[in-house]
Amino acid sequence: MVKTYCPRIPLQGQAFRALKAISLIMAIGLGLASCANQENKGVASRISPAADIVAQSEQATPNAADASPKAALPRPQLIKSAEISLQVKSIEESSKVIAEIVRQQQGDILELNDFRAGNSVTAQSVSLKIRVPQDRLDLVLEALSQLGLVKGRFLKAEDVTNQLVDLQARLKNSRQTEVQLQEILKQTGSVGDVLKVTQELSRVRESIEQVDAHLTNLKNQVAYSTVQVSLTAEVSVIAPQSDLGSQLQNTWNNATHSVTVVSIGLLKLSIWLMVYCPYWLIPLAGFLFLRHRRRQLTKLQDSNSPINSDN
Fold this sequence. Notes:
The protein is of the alpha+beta class. Helices cover 68% and strands 15% of the residues. It has 2 domains: 9-62; 76-239, Alpha-Beta Plaits.
């Protein structure tokens, strides 16, 4: 039988080593726990801003959803026109100011009609037709109203949104048809088919040009508004008194004019008498003949009366 030799360790040394191992394990556990807490805090700190952002986005999402239908609504396309009537002190100065306003607002003067009279009895008036960008129409009307007394104001708007949408859809479909016809034309081989496709392509292109021109015209009318401006200036209705020389000159002119009128009237009367002479010469000749015959009979009676008295 073999005997093994195991040296004996004192009991105090073994207890000390066990206590040291336990304390080392506890220190490692505390270190790991502190590291885990720091990691959890870091993760929490990183998650917290993101959570705030998500919460804010969740709060903002309903607002965006509520605002999206409003933003999706198309803006009405309006053709606006206006009229304004003003009474001003000076036609010339007001016309210059209007031209400057139109130039500053990047507009144009389309028409200018001047109805001013030369005398001071008739009121002066000027009519202008201007075109300005639609977004500056209110500014132009406000500037024009400052020129004088507003006698009348009129604003009209026509909604052409449906027309624009319809024209854009027609234009899109026509262009798609044009592309399809071009593809068919490349694949067609017979002369008859080529002629048919070419004719249809020409018709489609003509329709595209017409729709495009109409669409462009409507867009220009929407982009620019027209304003009809009427300017009037009242002046004194009392005619100024003229001097003695002017009065004498007017009298002479009236007298010579009267002589001329009378002379022309007499000349016209003589022409009428010459034309109607057959109607009045025959009765006049008959009257003169009867008068002459009566005188002759009277003389014969006078000559026979002495003879009868002698017998």
